[in-house]
């Protein structure tokens, strides 16, 4: 019997395997950080919790230094760290360039920046203001159209 593409699923595993990359960390890591950062879908975030860590292995919030005011327009930092071991973590975000779809021509444009409450409020005022002036009496929103951040 020919199982077609499903034949590969029933075949015996190969005796040899090639490892392309192996990374071992000596410090705690956030379990499945990619999904938690919105780069994938997870049905239950509580099911992928990170393991508890020893408080001696984490940075105390009081030891964090905000260097935002020290950043130059070219992205470099004007700061001389005190003696010791330091790690600089630069965080930022950017829109993906995704446009609203499916949508009418009037409603097509870049997705709203959901990290900025003011941006969301402006879009809601515009959309629902238009709806209140039209004959429409209901609105429907799609929460999964563009990904997890809706």
Compact summary:
By secondary structure, the protein is mainly alpha-helical.
Structural write-up:
This protein has helices at residues 7-10, 33-36, 117-133. The protein is 17% helix and 0% strand. The mean pLDDT is 77. It has 150 residues and is mostly helical.
Q: Give the % helix.
A: 10-25%
Radius of gyration: 24 Å
> What overall geometry do the principal axes of the alpha carbons give?
flat
Order of helices and strands: HHH
Could you list the spans in which at least 5 consecutive residues all have pLDDT below 50? none
State the major sheet. Answer: none
Instruction: Say how many strands there are.
Output: 0
Q: Decide which structural class fits the backbone.
A: mainly alpha
Helical region count?
Answer: 3
**Oligomeric category:** single chain
Q: Roughly what is the average pLDDT, rounded to an integer? A: 77
Strand content: under 5%
End-to-end CA span:
47 Å
Secondary structure: elements and pairs:
Layout: H1 7-10, H2 33-36, H3 117-133
Question: Could you name the key traits of this structure?
Answer:
150 residues; mainly alpha
């Amino acid at each position: 019997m020919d199982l077609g593409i499903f034949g590969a699923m029933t075949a015996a595993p190969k005796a040899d395997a090639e490892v392309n990359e192996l990374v071992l960390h000596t410090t705690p890591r956030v379990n499945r950080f990619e999904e938690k950062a919105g780069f994938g879908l997870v049905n239950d975030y509580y099911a992928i919790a990170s393991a508890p860590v020893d408080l001696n292995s984490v940075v105390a919030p009081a030891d964090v230094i905000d260097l935002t005011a020290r950043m130059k327009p070219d992205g470099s930092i004007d700061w001389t760290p005190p003696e010791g071991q330091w790690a600089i973590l630069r965080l930022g975000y950017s829109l993906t360039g995704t446009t609203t779809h499916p949508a009418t021509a009037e409603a097509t444009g870049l997705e709203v920046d959901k990290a900025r409450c003011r941006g969301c409020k402006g879009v809601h005022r515009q959309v629902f203001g238009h709806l209140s002036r039209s004959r429409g009496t209901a609105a429907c929103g799609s929460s999964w159209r563009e990904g997890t951040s809706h």
